[in-house]
Amino acid sequence: MFQNLKASNISKIQVSEFILMGFPGIHSWQHWLSLPLVLLYLLALSANILILIIIYQEPTLHQPMFQFLGILAVVDMGLGTTIMPKILANLWFNAKAISLPECFLQMYVIHCFVGMESSIFVCMAIDRYVAICRPLHYPSIITESFVVKATVFMALRNTISTIPVPILAAQRHYCSKNQIEHFLCSNLGVTSLSCDDRTINSIYQLILAWTLMGSDLGLIILSYVLILHSVLKLKSAEAASKALSTCTSHLILILFFYTIVIVMSIAHSAAMSVPIMPVLLNVLHSVIPPALNPMVYALKNKELRQGLYKALKLDIKSN
C-alpha cells in the first residue's frame, strides 16, 4: 500500500525544467564541436546580412525574386539565432537547464521558421513558373503587392497553424524524466518524456507535416514539372538552357532543404542504431542551409554576383 501511495505521489510531481543533454553517447567531448558550429553560425549571419545589404543597395535587385531571397535571409538568421546561442551556452558553460515555458517557446519558434522557409521556396517556385511559362504576364502577376500579400499569408499561416504544437506539449504531464537527449526542444523529444498519453501530439505533428510541408513540396514539384514541360517545347537549345539556368539556384536550395527534412523525419521515426544522427541533423539543419543559401545564389546568379562585386568594391567583370 505504501509503495502504491509513493508511486502515486511521484506521478503527481511536475518537473520545473528540462535538461538538454546534447549529442547522445558523446557528452564527455561534445564541447569540441562548438568551434565548427560557431564558425558556421557566424558565416550564416555574415553571409545573410551581406545579401540583405546588397539587395537593399542595388536598384537592379529590387525585383520579387530577390525580395523573396531577402525574406529567406531574415528567416534563416532567425532560425539560427533561435537555436545556436542555447547550443553554444550548453557546450561552453554547461548551461543545460531550460525552463518549461522557454522550451515550449523555442519549440514554437522553430516550427514557425521552418514552415516559413518552406513557404518561401513555394513562392520562389511560383515566381520561376510565371517567369518561364507566362513571361508576358509576369510584370502584372509577380508585383510588389504580390510579394507583400504572399509574405503576410506565409506569416499568418505558419504562426497560427503551429500554435497548437507548444500548447498540446504544455498540456502533457512531466512527472519524472526531464533529460532530453538533444540540444533543442523538439516536439517529439519533449513529449516523449511525458507520463500520460501523447497520441494527440503525434497526430497533430503528422497532420502539420502533411498539410504544410507536404502541400508546399507538392506545389513546388508541380511548378517545376510545368516549367520543365514548357522548356522542353522550346526549339532553341540555348533558350532552354538560359531558362533552366534561372532555376538552378532555387532547385539546389529546395533539394537541399527538403532532403534534410525528409532524412530527419525518417531518422526520428525509425529505430536508429546511431542515436546521434537525428540530433546532429537537427543541429546542422539550423546552420548549414542559412550559410549555404547566400553562397549558392551569389555563385549562380549574375545580378547578385555583380552586386556582390560592387559591394566589396571589386573591379571584376561577370560574364
Tags for this entry?
mainly alpha, 72% helix, disordered N terminus, 3% strand, 319 residues, three-stranded mixed sheet, globular
Concise summary:
The chain has 319 residues and is mainly α.
Q: In which range does the helix fraction lie?
A: over 70%
- Number of beta strands: 3
Topology as a string of helices (H) and strands (E)? HEHHEHHHHEHHHHHHH
Query: On the 0-100 scale, what is the average pLDDT?
Result: 85
Label the structural class: mainly alpha
Rounded Rg? 22 Å
Give the N-to-C terminal Cα separation.
83 Å
Q: Count the DSSP helices.
A: 14
Q: Largest sheet, described in full?
A: 3 strands, mixed
Unreliable residue stretches: 1-10
Task: Provide the spatial order of strands within the biggest beta sheet.
Answer: 2-1-3
Strand content: under 5%
Shape: globular
Describe this structure in words.
This protein is mainly alpha-helical. Strands 2-1-3 form a three-stranded mixed sheet. The termini are far apart. Helix 3 runs antiparallel to helix 4, helix 3 (64-93) runs parallel beside helix 6 and helix 4 (100-133) runs antiparallel to helix 11. It has 14 helices and three strands. The longest helix has 34 residues, at 100-133.
